[in-house]
Batch of 3 targets.
Target 1
Amino acid sequence: MSDDGLLEVRDLNKYFGGVTAVDGFDMTVERNSITGLIGPNGAGKTTVFRTISGFHDPDGGKVVFDGEEITGKPVYEIVEAGITRTFQEARTFPEMTVFENLLVGKTGHRGEKLLPTTAGPKAYAEDERAAVEHADQLLGYMELAEKRDQRADRLAVGERKLLEIARALMTNPDLILLDEPMAGLPSDLTTDIVDYIERIREERDQTFLIVEHDMDTIMNICDSITVMEAGQTIASGTPEEVRNDERVVEAYLGEESA
Amino acid sequence: MAFDPQFLLNGVIVGSTIALAAIGLTLIFGILDFINFAHGEYLTLGAYAALVANVALGLPFVVAAVVAIPITVALALALDRVVFYPLRREGAGALSLLITSFGLSIILRNAVEMVWSSDPRRFDVGGAEAMAIAGVRITAVQIAIVVVSLVLMIAIHLLLTRTTLGVTMRATASNRSLALSSGVNTERIVTWTWVIGAGLTAIAGVLIGLNTVVRPSMGFGLLLVMFAAVILGGIGDPYGAMLGGLSIGIAQEVSVAFISASYKPAVAFTIMVVLLLWKPEGLRGADT
Amino acid sequence: MLEQLSFMTSVATVAGIYAVLALGLNIHWGETGLLNFGHVAFFAVGAYTTAILTIPSPTATQAYSFGFGLPVVVGIVGGCIAAGLVAVLLGIPTLQLDEEYLAIVSIGLAEILRHVMMNENWLTGGVAGLYGIDRPLRGVIPPEAYDFFYLGLVVLAVGLCYAYSRRLKQSPFGRVLRSIRDDEEASIALGKHTFRYRMQAFVVGGVMAGLAGALWAHYATALTPTAFGANITFLTWVGLIVGGSGNSKGAILGAGLIIAFREATRYLPDLYGLGDIIPTLRLILVGALVIVTIRYRPDGLLPERDISYAEYCKRVEYGGE
């Protein structure tokens, strides 16, 4: 390994039909950082996000996580390696309770295999107890304990975002990918989410990669920001450096005038 | 074994009728975003409407066939109002619509059987004498079937490319995430989709009944073949449906040279499954 | 009186067989969201497999070429396994795709199997079918009590499938199935290998339908292709939707109601001189029932219930109180 970044993306390419969505993209996410990936509409952020998390196969390049190459692996192997993503629209399981939503997040659960299930609850009681404890602990941590037995579709939008982050934490990830976590939230809730993310990073030793359209939203929270345009990295560095970078200013100005 | 071009010709005749019905199915699938399992019954209804006009009322066949179109369209629109529209309005998912269409299919099929019994019936029309052209046998009726189908396909092509409505329909149908959700004048497009889809399907029913017989299960029996044509051509793609229908028809008829004729539907099925295994990502539609 | 009892017994037996079918479909649609429109295929494969395994070798006058004369138990197990294999084969091309594709391919497979049943005389006896299928413990149970015994057997099968369905539903496995039904992409994002789960659920439900088919074969003792039409799939669906998909009790209730309805309407022609329109009229009503239920009571008579944490504790026995 050249760097000791937790996640290294090198020369990533992805085409859709004849259209190049990602064109030799590079980025590094340092361990225990909150890193932002920003860019104007159509820059390829979402494609990068989906490729890192295993929802797309790349057409070229490398994704290395924690020293292990995960390029093009299926999502379940990437989650096992330690990367879990969330969705922009906070996709909870609507017909399940908050608590059950969390329990589904448990990985490597014996009770999720058909044979132990057939043998009966005793065959997986230990794993289930661990899952229940973990879920209860996270409910307390994210201040969702009161909503525990409510159906997820009855939660307010902010609560759903928190639930989704809590559910991602259930998988014991090293890196959490957040897809526009502040989108569609009123400003007071945005502050809440930012507080949670910072707290989780500090207290639980997590690394975050946040994909965001709007630069200002994540200026204050990120240690490092990578900016992409037209499928390529055009700048990366601290928020201060990025904000003053000429190409970044141009890219965003171009969008405003369009 | 020398290949008999007769099979190929039969394939073109059958395939062009399937293509017509498949255009309707694919447009409805693409624009309303659900698979209409009652589509085969619209085909049956078209055939019976023409049968009643032709045999019971004694109208000339061509008039009867033309009359069948507005009748089937009116039925399709009425059924949409009563059955599908309330679900759409409530934002019910594609699967609720699909299961509902499954129920509708049972109702229509059995209603037809209740009224006209399950006996096969024929149109009162001449032109059944086969003539030999270039070593293949073909009847005047069969020539008419192919010609009518081709003319209609060209008409559909003009509609889809030369009118605003057609262009909008094509755009909506080919992009399933856009289907219905984007909201501009969608109910108007839905209405036109039923008009065109049910109209074409009614004609397909008449032509198929002309080529073979009219019976209550004729549409349901063709459902699989129509699905295969739609999947082969790509969901929501009317040109794909034409090509898919023709290919499936030809494949089925040519297969008779090699396997028992009772396995014709199995040919369509096999093509469909191979395609699903071979190109699943293409069939899921473009992802972003 | 005795006649009525015997009639009730036969209706209950058929209802029980449909209940097993509905429980299988409930695993598919109710728990996992799999649109299986070819349920009769599993039923037919289960029935024909056990028939072929258990009938005696054919004599010169018979159309079929295979008959292994094995014990009924072997036949039933074989029928279940064969149905499970069909589920795997059907699942491979369809379960990675959107739900609609399974609906299309499964309805097609059921149709093609019917052609196979009608045409492959060497295997299925063709249109004449297979007959003289053995009944379990035929020589042991007194003939006058046999129907009750068989009903008991069917009830046992319903009980087993019900218990297994409950066990699945209440397990973390069932939880993952429901998460797939609710939002498959979110389930994938949590690292679930959803294709594998769908396949397992598909096989479990298929095996149940195969069991129903095997029970039917040894009850009817003769099989013809006409008995395996798409109507079996329809009736099972209606039963499940009316009873309440996602709820095993609802599946059993719905299957019972739909068979009771079918049998009750069987005598209408004699009473009112309606003649032969009853079979079609019945199906029209059944179709209307589906549409009305989806529209006005999509959860069915017995809706699926939310499961609270307290229930979890009770069932997993780690004393969470």
Target 2
Amino acid sequence: MPIHEISGCIGCEACVKSCPTDVIQMDRERNKAYIAYVEDCQICHLCRLYCPVGAISITPEKSIPVMVSWR
Amino acid sequence: MSKKTDLSRRRFMGAAAGTLLGASALSSLNLNAAPVKNQPKIDPQAFSSNLLETDVLVIGGGMAGLFAAVKAHDAGARVLIVSKGRLGSSGLTPFAKGIFSYDPATANMSIDEFVAKVSESSLGSSNPVFTRQLAEYSKARVEELKSWGFFDSALYNNSFMRPIEARGIPLHERIMITHLLKEQGRVVGASGFSLDDNRILHFRAKTVVLCTGSGGFKSSGFPLCDLTHDGTVMAYKIGAKVTGKEWNDGHPASAVNSGSCYDNWHGQVEEKPNITSVDIHHDLGVDMNYTAYVLGPSSQGMGPPGGPAGKGPGERSDGPPSMEQVSGGPYVPEAFRRAGGPPPMPPQQSGFLAGLFGDKKPSGPPGMQGPKVGGSSAGMAIHKSEGLVPVDETGLSTVPGLYAAGDALGSYMSGGIYTQIGSSLAGSAVQGAIAGEAAAKASQKAKAVELPASKLAAVEEEILAPLQRERGYSPAWVTQVLQSVMIPNFVLYIKKERLMQAALAYVEELREHHVPMLLADDRHKLRLAHETENMIITAEMKMRASLMRKESRCSHYRLDYPEVDDVNWRAWINIWQDEKGQMQLEKQPFGTWPV
């Protein structure tokens, strides 16, 4: 998983706005952000850094594993 | 089943009938089953459409866009910014941590020497007008940034918002601009859609400054997946000349967790920015690709790059201490060679600010430690070398009223190679300010042009088309095909005629057959559909320009033409669309403006 979990969201939308690749959206009824397009997460951590309450956790693997030429 | 679907099925049967292969393929398709139709989650008919008006429209919310807006406002124009992402939190800007400042009091060379040395490193491919501009104005821009609090935080949104809010400049974020509007031979505005709700926005403007960055092919491991050459392609479509498509950033990613931009850069995004001073290099990136091509990737990484730690995405980095040397490969000018051993350690950045804000913990780009793999920045050219062709020092394009700045402008500030750490961020600030001021002045002389309703209706139709289609291809799948065609080392980096022709054939197929069938079922996919089209057109430009340049120079390396050819190729390549919609290419000699 890249962006892994949003826990303790206060609904400020900072993560939605600061994600360059539009991965996170707002659930308007619950007033909480949710991970909508995890496959497009570039694992840049801007959402986590802009979140004022530390609600976002991220892991370093892509949701679709990356195949490299050599490891 | 709709009539349209029925018709396409009959056509398919007609084409396939009569061969055994066709018959057997058809039987496995289970044609009695209903086709899977695209069923949008949002109603394309429910989009509202608004028209906003301004003197100067700035497109893009990175470093160039910030200064373009501020300086256009300060020159007396009404300004409006529109950005696909958030101000200071989209494109490459948020990840660039070094900013170059030429300080005449402390610099170890004069501006003339600086310009000459960059030209020497770039094998003549730099435009001295823009190199000089960088040196002359970088310090002033850095001082302004300091006054806005830029150096006080690792995150740039707050400091970028300060001058925008102080001036009351309207800011429209998370709007993807897809079209530039042209009437009576000049740019008159732009159109796009909101990522947050069902809105199409049209902007009427007297002048436009494109600050949309460059782009790549959404490769893993480099923070440019939101950059898809949108500005270049929309300008190309209204007749602007673009340049620089044959140059390649060759930045690697770490082989471990290679998809993580954050880990590749060792958490550098959490650092406050700092100031860099004069230190000119000839660090290619493509030399690593050459070594990997000859020897294969190794446990030591991709091979020998050189130079100091980069302070921003797309900037050259150190290689591992043990480097494998291979014969041949890209030419490096005598003065910039580092024969044998490892590259020198990066010099300590001096100066009060660097000392105050510099971060002591280990950080930096991939390559500082551990094995690495190529292709992470695939599709991105060298900073400031690709984008709109300028007709003068203000960044005015070949389309009247349309300016560009930063990585959206093919200024060749350092030519087909990146020569000075931190100059990309500084160059964006410098060029943005100059273009913004020029666009403001030009807007005072320009008349506001009405946007014909029929034109806006046609644009809206094009914007929403992927939502309207019942059958077609997902943008993610088409992007994956494009990546498979373009990213391999033997296509994009170690270039040769036959493989580039093969890749071009693939790309043409994608452009002709898949672009008109891109699907979307929500606004996110609608964005991906438009981004995918932009990447495909860019891929075609990259292949055509790389085929045309039958030599090797800087970051463009051809295995079949490995030498620098100064007789025929002291020239840039411009690309434009002719009246029949065909892609055309021409040479423009180094040191000249377009005719």
Target 3
Amino acid sequence: MKTTLKRLHITNMTVLSEADLQLSPQLNVIAGENGAGKSHVLKLAYSIIAAGAETGAKLAPEPPTKSALSRAVAEKLIGVFGPDTLGRLATRRRGRERCEVEAAFHDSRLDISFDFASNSKSEVNISKVPKASVPKSPVFLPTRELLSIYPGFVSVYDSHYLEFEETWRDACRLLGAPLARGPREARVRKLLPPLEESMGGSIVLEKSGRFYLKIPGQGSMEMPLVAEGLRKLGMIARLIATGALLEQGYLFWDEPETNLNPRLIKEVARTILNVCNSGIQVFVATHSLFLMREIDILLHSSDEGPTKARFFGLHPADLGYRVEQGDDVDSIGRLDALEEELSQSDRYLKAGGAA
Amino acid sequence: MTAIREGELAFSFSADWRAGKYDEWAFYRNQLGKRLQGTKGADIVAVARAALRRSRLRVVLHIEQPRISSKLFARPFDPANVRQKMRQLLKAIDPHPCVVDMQRMSGLAWRVTPEERREAAL
């Protein structure tokens, strides 16, 4: 059975009073203005899956226990969201003070439900205990690239109190994993070349613990000297090469467009679709009309067979934000990026730009 | 054939179309004209006779924009933006609306000519 997330039901979490997301096993795109909770949706889904995978890895082959999960989920939420206390993630409104989350997977043995109150400190109440563990660690790519800060980051993070989101640590840990070998290499060889062409070289991890961009005929360039946009492509290339983004698995990518020029955004869109088609469930939060259009163009012209996509729009409501969802970008209500472009055209004409 | 002059442009529609200036319609003047003073809207509305009594309609927006020479705005309104907005608004009527202009008519049947050029030809 597929381990992909099928449905995520959220009640009273941060700015979302109620959201019932029907997800695609392949591509999920979340759009909304700043502060609408896009990243929160990504981080919540990531925390649930990551807590499940971490607990599963410790207890394997036994299924996760209720008490282990109630701590693991709470710790992951605190590490990923960074609130003062867990309860800060629960919204106080409508007389209800509990945040409730239900996650359903295509393999229903993984289903999990939990809740916590606005005064909860370090544990959630697990109301539905999964009967099996998530087999693979999910990948969360933050808006910033991590290759340049990678050296020593995981060990420093684990031994000191650092104000960085735990997603950075988790992603760095995966970046440091060894390269995929065996039959998976063939798949890697198919996905990597377009990315390496855009970067002008390949990403290598030297024994010193630093990443380099190895440029054919020119030698290696230290990561901090490589353009920031290319470092972002480098992250995804490395995760494909290690097998973290091959077959089964999850990719959460928060605003992939950050720091990228349009040519690289085009490359990112193609990579996202390629990763989807190689069996990864992808969640993307974005503002970028350009990225959404690239994805839309690829969805309508993919030669790898149709990719199943779901789109989610977060819109201001009486209480916080609400979700509109559908199978295409036109079914999710107003797109702020589009409205702003149209209104800019109006202002440009009024300012006499076309005179 | 119906010929309509709008500003510096001359539109001509063949006999199987009904076309008119929208702001001359009684409906527009009675219902919208007073309330929407100062706003901009459709200049011409044209309906193919063949479209009447059909259950499915195709919607086309013909938009001629001021010519500008700005690297920032190739055209003041990006037709892709306009088309996407129309897709949101008209999804139930026509999920694939068209946006055209003189240079890109997509094989549509009416003709538009800049008025100056036509006068020069006469």
